[in-house]
Design a protein that fits this description.
CATH topology of the largest domain: Jelly Rolls
Strand content: 35-45%
Largest sheet: 8 strands, antiparallel
Oligomer: single chain
Helix content: under 10%
Distance between the termini: 33 Å
Structural class: mainly beta
């Protein structure tokens, strides 16, 4: 949809007002990090053969028995669009004949409390508009699917990549669904999926172009197989999911997007990074409180790297080097009460700070959906 250009003092028609509202309703977009600005885990991961989060925050890869991949955040985007980065999937080991259960899809999941504006399951239910830029050296039919996890319902739609290695803008409209309301909580209610390949378990039925009870064979019928040859790739950026209709992309500042992403994941890495205020809990243990930068979706899991002298408990008496943080006593959305139960020695009650002490030291806090 082309948006109207306005001048000072202009009296707007109803149609122009609608266009102006479309331009400013950025808060209705439920996609986080749609411009691929934030990649806390890193900008490239090779030799991927399983599902997981790898690069661009909030975008998960769903992968089973369908080749080997490199996922990266590229400084490549549609010219003149304002986007500077994109998420790229590159096939490094092909799977030309997918196994029946083979699948490859890029996903983003949404908390129920963040998708209430779609009014799903009510008489006022709104349609879903998914818009994005895409580029691939593989042309053909591609499938997007919305999954309602609360009510086990699904709907799919196709789009076409027409020109090889060319950025194309796509807008897909999914119908409204008056059956099955989303739960109003912090669990995963809705998931958007971009398919890159699928076996017969997902392609042997009839494409679910209207909402129905989830049936795997109906999810990805007609999907082109990007895994058919090595060096095939697929890229995406400028992603939005909105009620009723798509607007132009409204960019948010980096700090805002980073905070949105840190609700689900954040990390500390490198040398001499502050981890937590702490104290000797007895002579051979350390306990401390690590504060989350923003309230997380739920109490996160903590994963710490381990290696010789990766961490330091620094007090007024000096440095007490140790290998890893190995205990969690409590984790909530605001902070984590953590501990070290081996490799430390000091005077009970003496306070200090836990720091990273090696370039490979890393702590990850995860509350992903």
């Amino acid at each position: 949809m082309a948006l109207t250009t306005f001048v000072a003092g202009q009296v707007l028609t109803a149609a122009q007002l609608n266009d102006s509202y479309a331009a400013v309703d950025w808060n209705e977009n439920v996609i986080i990090n749609g411009a691929m600005q934030v990649a806390q885990r890193g900008t490239s991961t090779a030799s991927i053969t399983a599902s997981g989060y790898y690069t661009a925050d909030r975008f998960r890869l769903g992968l089973a028995s369908l080749g080997t991949w490199t996922e990266s955040v590229e400084t490549d985007a549609p010219t003149g669009s304002g986007f500077r980065k994109s998420l790229k999937m590159l096939c490094t080991t092909a799977s030309a004949s997918p196994a029946s259960g083979g699948q490859l899809r890029v996903q983003q999941s949404f908390e129920g409390q963040n998708v209430q504006q779609f009014a799903k399951g009510t008489a006022s239910a709104k349609q879903f508009s998914l818009s994005f830029w895409v580029k691939s050296n593989v042309t053909g039919t591609f499938i997007c699917t919305l999954l309602d996890n609360d009510n086990t319902r699904a709907v799919s739609a196709s789009y076409t990549i027409s020109a090889s290695a060319t950025w194309e803008k796509k807008t897909i409209t999914f119908p409204a669904d008056t059956t099955g309301a989303f739960d109003n909580d912090n669990a995963s209610s809705l998931q958007a999926n971009w398919w890159l390949g699928a076996g017969t378990d997902f392609t042997s039925g009839t494409l679910a172009t209207t909402w129905e009870s989830t049936s795997n064979p109906n999810l990805a019928v007609g999907q082109t197989n990007v895994a058919s040859a090595t060096n095939n790739y697929w890229q995406i950026t400028g992603v939005q999911l909105q009620p009723e209709r798509a607007s132009q992309f409204l960019f948010q500042d980096y700090g805002t997007v980073l905070a949105q992403c840190q609700r689900y994941y954040w990390a500390i890495s490198g040398v001499n990074k502050n981890v937590a205020n702490a104290f000797y809990f007895g002579a051979t243990a350390v306990r401390g409180v690590l504060n989350n930068p923003v309230p997380m979706r739920t109490g996160p899991t903590l994963t710490a790297s381990s290696g010789t002298n990766y961490f330091d408990f620094q007090t007024g008496s000096g440095d007490d080097l140790f290998n890893t943080i190995n205990a969690i006593y409590n984790a909530n959305e605001y902070n984590v009460y953590l501990g070290v139960t081996s490799g430390v020695s000091g005077t009970s009650g003496v306070a200090g700070a836990i720091l990273t002490n090696d370039a490979s030291a890393k702590i990850e806090l995860n509350a992903e959906l």
